[in-house]
Amino acid sequence: MITNRVPVGVRPFIALLCAAGAAALLAAPAAAQGGRGTVGNMRVGDDSGQTIWEQPAPAGEKVFRAPAGIKSFKVYYEYDGSSTKRAVIKLIAPQGVFLDQKEQELSQAGTFSSDFSFDQPLADQEYLVNAYVDVEGAESLADGFTLYVGDAAPITPAHVTEATVAAPSMSNEQANAPAPPPISDPGGSPSMLLLVGSGIGVIALLAIVVWAGMSALKQR
Question: Fewer CB under 10 Å: which end of the chain, C or N?
């Protein structure tokens, strides 16, 4: 008579399969989260770390206004990762001009700061202060805020001068040539590769359990 009971010899394999599957599912998100450390909570502060110059701003934006004639200020930010990562804090003037940048190696979670100082006072205008972190070898914007100096007003599109660049002429053959196909990424992100590897491991263990179960049933 065939019963629905699991053979005694197969039970250890099923327990091993369950443990391995649970470990794989728990380890994959944890590993992905561990490599995703980034910079946030950027602000201007005094030497004690107290936030200064903050202004009311729309949701999702941060605005600070410094007094006219400043030659220095300090930027504070938080890092929430545990792996070593390079952070770059950039001060950007209108028209996308990079005035200065500060780099720092971050190896543990905590509060960090970068000092900006200049020989001449900053002009009364709008600036961007952005933080970038390395993501797979490229700089990725992590956080930032707008800094106004003195009586500077927000820059509107009417105040932005567009530079017109003449494009090189093309022959008829070049103009009618089909566009090249998009380049796909042959690899995957570390978290995706880990999930795929975990799934393959679980499938292999399942195959072992099924084989052991069939062998045990044949011996009965």
Answer: N
